[in-house]
Amino acid sequence: MIEFQSSISPETRAEILSQLDEIEQAEEVRFLFAIESGSRAWGFPSPDSDYDVRFVYAHSVDWYLSIHPGRDVIERPLAGDWDVNGWDIKKALGLLLKPNPVLLEWLSSPVRYRWNDDICKKLISFSQRVAHGNACLNHYRRLGERQWATYIDGRDAISLKKYLYVVRPALAIRWTRMHPEVIPPMNFQALMDGTDLNTDVTKRLAHLLEEKSKSKEMGDGSREPLIDDLVMSEFSQAREIALTLKPDKTDLRPAADRLFREIIKVTNHD
Q1: CA angle 171, 40, 10 (to 5 degrees)
Q2: Strand-strand pairing, 51-58 and 82-88
Q3: Cβ(90)–Cβ(61) under 8 Å?
């Protein structure tokens, strides 16, 4: 397996932690976790890639008991290399019930800035009870096909970033087919390692990653027929599987309510 190498310098990490402290105080919330998403967590950043910081937080008990519900997201304006935003825990659990593959990815990020071990263990344990396979297949297929149609199809010279934005969903589909009970990892190298790719495809992907790491965020390159074939095959199989999928009938809302109440009590007791 290719070991994940974080591209977050100690100085940048310190700046991110400072921003998170400021948000926590200004918004009067408690962070449950804060992680890196995007290309720096996926394992294929460019030298000028943004920092995509995502987090989940909890308010005070009184905030949830208000007649008029408050806003359940915190978003900071895009500024320079910084893209920082997150969700309230009530919103996060509601999305997890769908389930939402984005939150599943956040919980598997290899780059953590803030991490409440006890609460995150409970969130991960709960996420493993959710039948995520169907949602992952449909989510990654739609995401990948949209990127393909917009940025790749019919073009010879393509953005390396957008190419990887197509390949990664295809590998997540492949992972879900091969390991239906295991959430696809966020990191691209881990996806490659766990999806039984042949040697030629692995070499082409390694070359693509190397080129992306040297180029600017919008650097261009050429398409690889073997990679195109892999992508088209996985999207096709996902469409076929979607025709046979049946909705999961398990009602996890009572369990989600209990977990939500437990988290709020803990975060307001400390």
Answers
A1: 150
A2: parallel
A3: no
- How far is 159 from 145, CA to CA, in rounded Å? 16
| Dist. CA 76–CA 85, nearest whole Å | 6
Q: Which residue in 5, 103, 6 sits closest to 51, CA to CA?
A: 6
Cβ-proximal residues to 11 (8 Å cutoff; 6+ apart), any chain? none
- Strand residues in 116-267 grouped as ranges (E): 157-159, 220-222
CA dist., res. 34 & res. 83, Å (int): 13
Measured between alpha carbons, how far is 89 from 122 in angstroms, rounded to an integer?
13
Asked if residue 212 lies in contact with residue 189, where contact means CB atoms within 8 angstroms, the answer is no
Phi first, then psi: give them for residue 89, nearest 5 degrees.
Answer: -60, -35
Q: Which two tokens stand for residue 17?
A: 């932690």
32 sits in which H/E element:
strand 30-37
Question: What does the alpha-carbon distance between residue 236 and residue 157 come to, in Å, rounded to a whole number?
Answer: 24
* Residue with tokens 């109440």, as numbered in its chain: 261
Rg (Cα) of the chain, in Å, rounded? Answer: 19
Per-residue pLDDT of the chain (270 residues; tens, 9 = 90+): 455 667 799 999 999 999 999 999 999 999 999 999 988 998 888 777 899 999 999 999 999 999 998 999 999 998 888 999 999 999 999 998 887 788 888 999 999 999 999 999 999 999 888 867 777 888 899 999 999 999 999 998 999 989 999 999 999 999 999 998 888 888 898 999 999 999 999 999 999 988 888 876 556 888 999 999 999 999 999 999 988 877 777 889 999 999 999 999 999 876
Residue 56, token pair as written in the block: 């989940």
Measured in degrees and rounded to the nearest 5, phi and psi for residue 215 equal -90, 165
